Amino acid sequence: MVGVSVIRFVHNGIRNFLHRLEYPRAQINRTMARGQGRNVAAVRAGGWKSDLAHAVIVEHGSIGVRQKQTSGYGRSTDLEGLDQVSLRKRIASSTVFNEIVSFFVYAYLWLCYATTRWDHEGLDEMNECVRSNQPVLTVIWHERLWMSPFLFDTTLGKICSITSESRIAYTGKFLLRRFDFESIMIDPKKNPVGLNRQLFRRIREGYSIAISPDGTRGPPRVAKSFPITWARKTRMPVFCATFAMRWRLKTPTWDRSHIPLPFNRGVLMVRRWTEEIPEDASPEDIEVLTRKLEGALNALTDEADTMVGRKPGRQ
Description:
Blueprint lengths: L1 H19 L7 E6 L4 E6 L23 E4 L5 E4 L7 H6 L2 H20 L2 E5 L1 H9 L5 E3 L18 E7 L2 H12 L3 E5 L6 H12 L2 E5 L14 H9 L3 E8 L2 E3 L7 E3 L4 E9 L9 H25 L8
Parallel strand pairs: 5-13, 6-9, 6-10, 7-8, 7-9
Antiparallel strand pairs: 1-2, 3-4, 10-13, 11-12
Helix pairs in contact: 3-5
């Protein structure tokens, strides 16, 4: 009885914790364990395990687990369901958790911005387009996204960022919302028709678009063709953008993203891409224009690094 009471206590604690994180409550399934002739209360919340049984049901649509556990006498118990969702993933998907994380990142970015001596290059032309109700298409390498909200003045117009459906991007959605950015989350494996519909609807509503041409999985600083395709269909002016700081950290990810540091020297740069995009451009033309856009964005990024005293390139 003492063992069952302890299990019940742990289960109630996990259930209340998940409830505060806005997740559905876990149900308890009592599985007969013949090992010592006792009932063992097995909890599926967060993937809790026992020597004798595994938890069985979670009320969250069709989320469940299909597993086979062996009892004390060597008999197996079939547990039906679909996929086990760990507590870590549930916390990472929690609205409360992401609001807290985004608040601290937002405060840190503002600290970096407020304590850094900035040079601003080329922002006036983009701001003038936005002020005149002309949506723009802004492209920036994935490695330079951290300070990108400070490149666009949301008091002049609305802007929407295209992000992936990864967990880190989900947290980034909450962060961008604090900077008055809208977000469209995409899955690169799915058909792009739905994305195009959302995108064109936002443009008709007066939104500018921000995108990383090498996202969402790289390779780094290698542009994909979709910015050219969108610019050809919408006739939006294209602006290359970047930031650079004298001192920064780098993440151990595919893009080697630049994390800003406070009390620094930095530059925010924007430059209009002036290549003409024919309305009847062939796939070969689009590929050539994509490489030209890639070269222009690389040149701008290297120039920004040079201005703050860093060696250009992906150092």
